[in-house]
Amino acid sequence: MIKLVLSDIDGTITDSRRVLSSSASEQIRNVQDSGVIVSLVSGNVIPVMYTFRTYLGLKAPLFAENGGAMIEDSITQFFTMDRPMAFFRHLEKKGLAKGIMTNQWRLCSMGFDPLGTVENEISPLSAQYNVEITNSGFSWHILNVGQNKGFALHYLMERYGLRPEEVLVIGDNLNDIPMFMDGVRKAVPANAEEELKMRADYIARSGYGDGSAEILSSLESF
Amino acid sequence: MIKLVLSDIDGTITDSRRVLSSSASEQIRNVQDSGVIVSLVSGNVIPVMYTFRTYLGLKAPLFAENGGAMIEDSITQFFTMDRPMAFFRHLEKKGLAKGIMTNQWRLCSMGFDPLGTVENEISPLSAQYNVEITNSGFSWHILNVGQNKGFALHYLMERYGLRPEEVLVIGDNLNDIPMFMDGVRKAVPANAEEELKMRADYIARSGYGDGSAEILSSLESF
Lengths: 222, 222
Hints:
homodimer; alpha/beta; Rossmann fold; Hypothetical Protein Ta0175, Chain: A, domain 2; 2 domains; five-stranded parallel beta sheet; globular
């Protein structure tokens, strides 16, 4: 029986333009009302997750910055800004990246728009700084090593004393792979990347928010 | 013909617990898709308004801190923090108020939970500091004089060259009164305060988000 749902936001409970899906929102609330813990994890910032928590009426902690920080009634920061900022400054100085608006609210990661190629110019440099580069499908992020959605999932499983088979994760993009762990139930909307679909127990018929609503409405089948 | 809709958020496009209304969200998008400018104004902070703008897919600028700051692709700050902060520190020192979580993201207002009585202890002191006190129904705010939802409405009317009769405002609480200006069309959900209902051209049959959805779905009648 599923006791915890951990879902991505962008492309998973939104449409392709990033607009929040009403059907997914409604199902999230239904699932929470049925007694299941519902949490969200995103590359976005704490005040954005504060907004989701308040205006979706969620009770569980939510995770920002790919798992690097958590909000409930107060904010918990699991990683620091030192390495991501140092690497971002380096990229900026070399003219390889431009910061994004939400950086002013970040605690332990930096977002960027690439001005150089990620594969050939940016990624190779990241090892020197001991940071990781991910893409949510909507923006690029510089993160500490170990700062990923799997970290958030581990935290929740420990906090609530859950076994893997009691957890359902939902995501669509490469940065969701760290929470697609062994033993955990995995579902994806139809727009998900091939690498996610390969790992999924269930692929929804619909894409984006409608796909996640479909998944959430049949939770008892997982 | 209505060319601009300016709406409050809390209690107006949410339910009584502050959860975003799906029906109001859908109608907001329909109205924008029909070519009407849709903006929101709230006592909440810029990153919360950033979240609404992104995840509702709104194109117009939105207003935070009761009109004191605006977000579109960048942030514009119309007022400063000097006076609100000075007054907040005074209240804190006297044990009359406690700060709220969103204060860390504020630019030109402070939110507080009263520890003393607002009417007898807090309001009388505000004149000394040349600040104003308002309540959104969900929290108390300290603002600069002139920093209110009417300021936001004036800004939008000037920017888009609109006459009062081309504007519809929707709100439910006392801090919405400054945008309930002469000549402007005014509508309220059924949960609105009596002072708003007295000024309204239309009172919806339903309360909260469902009431605002009802208003937005009959825009041609205003």
